[in-house]
Each structure stands twice: as structure tokens, then as C-alpha cells.
């Protein structure tokens, strides 16, 4: 059973987020347990302050290290200090992270315990990334308001890779990105919709020719939308 603990100042953001589709099924089958925790419950009891002004000056606020260290230590046991060997990964979602990829998702899915730390404000005290976190991850080159939407993305991509999470009809290994191309185009009935026709070859039942058409169509689509994938 993979244990996923999310540390956030907005635990309610995750209400219902894991109650749909494959993630819901994986939770029901006890393949994964997912909990979101309020960072403020590890802040000093007085005012539950989790942020402070940046040393050196500048705009905005920075998440303080103490509540994050306390939260991770209470959820994942004693200080990991990059203890990948124990099969625990402590992930910081941050715009400065390494790109999240299917390869990284597979690695995380092979762990026993994941702690996801969601950043907010201008950032997180760098001692968290330096001394607590095993993986600092970004989900792409665009600006989010915080790490929470990125945590949703990571959990979704990881959970569906847990053995048994996908139905027997699909295997994660045969999906798009596994062969480095985008998926081929899909069609269903009606064969003509407002004058838009489904490619004739798909209606013929010539399986070898259909496979060939799909291969070429996938290549065309990849050229158009993701030429970077072809250069590799
Ligand atoms: C407007 C503030 N920016 C100053 C240049 C820095 C900044 C800080 C914090 C920008 C975004 C954020 C919040 N984003 C995340 O925590 C985040 C994120 C993202 O923004 N893009 C892609 N992946 C991720 S993972 C976490």
C-alpha cells in the first residue's frame, strides 16, 4: 500500500479531488492511502504562523522551515536526509524543481511512502529543499499560484502506475509516451457528423491497414503538436 501525505495550507483544496475514476478505485482497493494535512497544525500554537519576511529583503513572504520540518518528520518518521534507500520520497512542488516526467512518476510509484510539500507565497525556505526533500519537482513552464494543483497532477500520474490500479483492459506500458509518440486520433459513431466524416479506412475492417494508418496519423500529430518529441 502506497501512503501519500500532502502538506498544504489549503487542505480543503483536496476535498473530493481523489474521489473520481482510477484514483477512487485505487483507494477503494487499498492500493493507496491519500491524506491532506494542514501545515498550520505544525506551527507554533500561538497564531499558527507559517510564513515570514525574506532575509535580504524583497516582496512577499516565505514559508518558514520549522513547521515543514516538523510536519515531514511526524508524517514520515525521523529525518530522512535524502533517504531514498528507505523507499520514502519527500517531494517539494516548486517552480524551481526538475521537470515532472513519466519516468519520475514511475519512480515515485515504486516507493512505499510519499510526502508532498506544497509551496505558497513567494517560495519556501531553501533549507527545506537542501536538507529535507529528496525531489524538487515542477510540472511545467507556467506560473501557478501554489504547489497544490501540481500535487494533484503528481498524485494522479503516480497512482495510476501502481500495479493493479488500471483495469486489465489497459496497461500503463502500452500508453502514449511509452513509445515516444502522441496517441493516434480516435473516432466513434456517427460515421458522419454535420458533414464531418470519419476516415474511410477505419470503417473497412482491414486491420493491418488500420494499424498502418494509425501509426502515420500519430506521427503527423506529433510533428504538428510536439516536434520536440521527434528530435529525441
Ligand atoms: C510570482 C512569483 N514568482 C516570482 C518570479 C515566483 C513564484 C513563486 C511561487 C511563482 C510561482 C509560485 C507558485 N508555484 C508553485 O508553487 C509551483 C509550480 C508552478 O508555478 N509552475 C509549475 N510547477 C509548479 S510546482 C509548484
Structure report:
With 232 residues, the protein is of the alpha/beta class. The chain has two domains: 158 residues, SPOUT methyltransferase, trefoil knot domain (Alpha/beta knot, 3-Layer(aba) Sandwich), CATH 3.40.1280.10; 56 residues, tRNA(m1g37)methyltransferase, domain 2 (Trp Operon Repressor, Chain A). It is built from seven helices and ten strands. It has a five-stranded parallel β-sheet with strand order 2-1-6-5-8, sandwiched between helices. Strands 3-4-7 form a three-stranded mixed β-sheet. α3 links the parallel β5 and β6. The longest helix is centred in the last third of the chain and has 19 residues. It is elongated, with a radius of gyration of 22 Å. It starts with a strand and ends with a helix. The structure holds ligand 9D3. Ligand 9D3 binds next to β5.
Topology summary:
Layout: E1 2-8, H1 21-28, E2 32-38, E3 51-52, E4 62-63, H2 65-76, E5 88-99, H3 102-109, E6 113-118, E7 123-124, H4 126-131, E8 135-138, H5 148-159, E9 192-193, E10 196-197, H6 207-225, H7 227-231
Helix pairs in contact: 3-5
The protein binds ligand 9D3.
Amino acid at each position: 500500500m502506497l501512503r501519500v501525505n500532502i502538506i498544504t495550507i489549503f487542505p480543503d483544496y483536496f476535498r473530493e479531488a481523489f474521489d473520481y475514476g482510477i484514483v477512487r478505485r485505487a483507494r477503494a482497493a487499498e492500493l493507496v492511502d491519500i491524506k491532506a494535512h494542514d501545515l498550520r497544525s505544525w506551527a507554533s500554537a500561538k497564531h499558527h504562523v507559517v510564513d515570514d519576511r525574506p532575509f535580504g529583503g524583497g516582496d512577499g513572504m516565505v514559508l518558514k522551515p520549522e513547521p515543514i520540518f516538523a510536519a515531514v518528520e511526524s508524517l514520515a518518521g525521523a529525518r530522512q536526509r535524502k533517504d531514498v534507500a528507505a523507499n520514502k520520497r519527500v517531494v517539494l512542488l516548486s517552480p524551481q524543481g526538475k521537470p515532472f516526467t513519466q519516468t519520475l512518476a514511475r519512480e515515485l510509484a515504486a516507493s512505499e511512502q510519499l510526502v508532498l510539500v506544497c509551496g505558497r507565497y513567494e517560495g519556501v525556505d531553501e533549507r527545506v529543499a537542501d536538507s529535507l526533500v529528496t525531489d524538487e519537482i515542477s510540472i511545467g513552464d507556467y506560473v501557478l499560484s501554489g504547489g497544490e494543483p501540481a500535487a494533484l497532477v503528481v498524485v494522479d500520474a503516480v497512482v495510476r502506475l501502481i500495479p493493479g490500479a488500471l483495469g486489465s483492459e489497459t496497461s500503463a506500458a502500452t500508453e502514449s509516451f511509452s513509445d515516444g509518440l502522441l496517441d493516434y486520433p480516435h473516432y466513434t459513431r456517427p460515421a458522419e457528423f454535420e458533414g464531418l466524416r470519419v476516415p474511410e479506412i477505419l470503417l473497412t475492417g482491414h486491420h493491418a491497414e488500420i494499424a498502418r494508418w494509425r501509426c502515420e496519423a500519430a506521427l503527423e500529430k506529433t510533428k504538428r503538436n510536439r516536434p520536440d518529441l521527434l528530435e529525441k
